[in-house]
Amino acid sequence: MIDYHEILNTIQEEMSYRDVKGKVASYIPELARVDPKKFGMHLYRNENEFYGFGDHEEKFSIQSISKVFTLSLAIKNLGTKVWERVHVEPSGNPFNSLMQLEQDRGIPRNPFINSGALVISDILVDVLDNPKKELLEFVRKITGEEDIDYDESVAQSELSSGYRNIALVNYMKALGNIKCDVEEIIDFYFYSCSIAMSCKSLAKAFMLYANKGEILHSGEQILNPSTVKRLNALMQTCGFYDESGEFSFEVGLPGKSGVGGGIAAIHPQQYSVAVWSPVLNKKGNSELGMKALERLTTLTGLSVF
């Protein structure tokens, strides 16, 4: 039997922010203020078996991890029609590439790069009466935590500096792949990225994807297993921008990162795990977080491969 408590203690002892060479995200002014020494990790198996250390209960901006939630909500409402407007291939390019979008004639390579998430945002703005409210309700439901909310300061910081994302959505609008008002889409997109959660909350949320679409703490089935299979496949192949192959090679779990320094990952039917360290490598992924997750699958001897 695997002793996860001992393994997390080992990881905590081994990891140190002094070993990382990257920097916190600076292109979003509010994220540039985060203490680079923050580090936490939380592993969740069920309501009675969970482990964490460090800053695992401190909230941070989850950024692109939210793309898993928005995509889940879009599929829940629109089903397979989602794939008519966004593809499912790894990008191999930076997450905010305009060049790739031009090459692909306005159809994003996958829903986890910025252009893809903007299309998903357009879908939600189109089909939901109150997309910001309903996204929060979804996240609160799968975590069982009613205090999860948007970080207003982060959202406003992104709105004041997100010119490249505005360019992406306008370009897709020009090519006919955006239906709704650009400002409304951008507003929803930046607010979704600003959701503040802790590693503990993220691990609870991602148990949905480890548990075939069933909320573990309530027993409610809110995504069908086939949808979850595809979401996990996308996380495995596209969840880390143009470093997804490296993450699969080193860690071997489906997961999703965000430039706030968070990473959430799952081992189907086993556990969900979230780690937070805001220092990013050159590809925009948490440097210490990736090392911690590599040690987790190495020390347990288990991955999806």
Task: State the helicity in percent bands.
Answer: 40-55%
With strands numbered from the N-terminus, the spatial order across the biggest sheet is 2-1-8-7-6
Following the backbone from N to C, one meets helices and strands in this order, namely HEEEHHHHEHHHEHHHEEEH
Biggest sheet architecture: 5 strands, antiparallel
Taking the alpha carbons of the first and last residues, their distance comes to 19 Å
CATH topology: Beta-lactamase
Examine the secondary-structure arrangement and name the CATH architecture: 3-Layer(aba) Sandwich
Q: Unreliable stretches, pLDDT < 50, 5 or more residues? A: none
- Choose one word for the global shape: globular
Q: Count the helices. How many?
A: 12
Beta-strand share of residues: 5-15%
Radius of gyration: 18 Å
Number of strands: 8
The average pLDDT value, as a whole number, equals 95
CATH hierarchy, class: Alpha Beta
CATH superfamily: DD-peptidase/beta-lactamase superfamily
> How many domains, as an integer?
1
Kindly name the structural category.
Answer: alpha+beta
Enzyme class: hydrolase
Organism: Zunongwangia profunda (strain DSM 18752 / CCTCC AB 206139 / SM-A87)
Family: Belongs to the glutaminase family.
GO molecular function, one term: glutaminase activity
Report on the architecture of this protein.
It is a single chain. The protein is α+β, with helices and mostly antiparallel strands and 305 residues long. The protein has a single domain (4-300), classed as DD-peptidase/beta-lactamase superfamily (Beta-lactamase), CATH 3.40.710. Helices cover 45% and strands 11% of the residues. It has 12 helices and 8 strands. It has helices spanning 4-14, 66-78, 98-103, 114-127, 131-143, 152-161, 163-174, 182-193, 199-210, 225-238, 244-250, 287-300, and strands spanning 40-46, 49-54, 60-61, 149-150, 195-197, 255-257, 262-267, 271-276. Strands 2-1-8-7-6 form a 5-stranded antiparallel sheet. Strand 6 and strand 7 (262-267) form a beta hairpin. Helix 7 packs across helix 8. It is globular, with a radius of gyration of 18 Å. It starts with a helix and ends in a 5-residue tail after the last helix. This is Glutaminase. Substrate binds at residues 64, 114, 158, 165, 189, 241, 259. GO terms for molecular function: glutaminase activity. It holds the Pfam family Glutaminase. It catalyses: L-glutamine + H2O = L-glutamate + NH4(+).
